[in-house]
Specification:
The chain has about 240 residues and is α/β, with parallel strands linked by helices. It has helices at about 15-25, 40-50, 60-65, 80-90, 105-115, 135-145, 175-180, 185-195, 215-220; strands at about 5-10, 30-35, 55, 70-75, 95, 125, 150-160, 200-205, 235-245. The radius of gyration is 21 Å and the shape is globular.
Length: about 240
């Protein structure tokens, strides 16, 4: 690092990075966003001009290797999280990686090993935003036993995401990009995990006949449905976690 200033490079200046991470970083004292790398040099240059970032790279590998960068913020799709994280840590950079952490447990473990190999660097995943506002209050409810003995926690997510038959699949539904993930259930489980002890058993339910299609499989579908969902249509995902009190 150069003195007290933290020089940050952005890999993947997408919608969430533009809306959340860049404004947040720019509001901090002694933090300066000095470089950006998107999918193409043209895209990198566009983002650099929009946010007054000094340097635009053609590839993320060039950004990670730059000696002028102290920390890397990863805002790409999950298919790049492992590679960028591991290479950035190996290059001596701090890392903030957008959730989801990885496409699979195996990739996540590789990232963990890379982080453990650099204890002198900070490596973290962007936390789930759910529960941040009420976190202190919920902790107090558990601390003072207001809720009584904890026997079971049930996590349920009900919304209308990804239910429109007439729309093409979202990238979160593409296993090649997003990996083996259960829609939004992981981020909700992470939120609850802040407040409860380590579980002693898990129970998960989902349809055994439903799986995520790859982009290639979707391209082979013979038609694109024109039916649209009813405004009342909702989907639900859930899990039951039995935990020690």
């Amino acid at each position: 690092m150069s003195g007290a200033e933290l020089r940050v490079g952005i890999v993947g200046a997408g919608a969430n990075t533009r809306a959340r991470h860049l404004p947040g970083l720019r509001s901090q004292e002694n933090v300066r966003v000095v470089a950006v790398a998107n999918s193409t040099l043209e895209s990198s240059q566009k983002a650099a001009a929009e946010f007054d970032i000094p340097q635009a790279f053609a590839t993320w590998q060039e950004l990670v290797a730059s000696p002028e960068i102290d920390a890397v913020v990863i805002g790409t799709w999950p298919n790049l999280h492992r590679d960028v994280t591991c290479d950035a840590l190996a290059a001596g950079k701090h890392v903030l990686c957008e959730a989801r952490m990885a496409r699979s447990v195996a990739e996540g473990r590789e990232m963990l090993v890379a982080a453990q190999a650099r204890p002198d660097r900070v490596a973290m995943v962007v936390p789930s935003p759910y529960g941040l506002v009420c976190d202190a209050e919920v902790r107090e409810l558990f601390q003072f036993a207001f809720l009584g003995d904890l026997r079971e926690v049930v996590v349920i997510d009900v919304d209308e995401s990804y239910t429109d038959y007439s729309e093409f699949l979202h990238w979160r539904q593409d296993a090649e990009i997003s990996g083996i993930n259960v829609l939004s259930l992981g981020i909700l489980h992470e939120t609850v995990s802040r407040w409860i002890p380590q579980p002693v058993s898990h129970a998960r339910f989902s349809s055994p006949r439903v799986r995520t299609l790859t982009a290639r499989e979707c391209s082979r579908l013979p038609f694109r449905s024109r039916f649209r969902r009813s405004p009342s249509t909702r989907t639900a995902r859930g899990a039951s976690i039995t935990s020690a009190a």
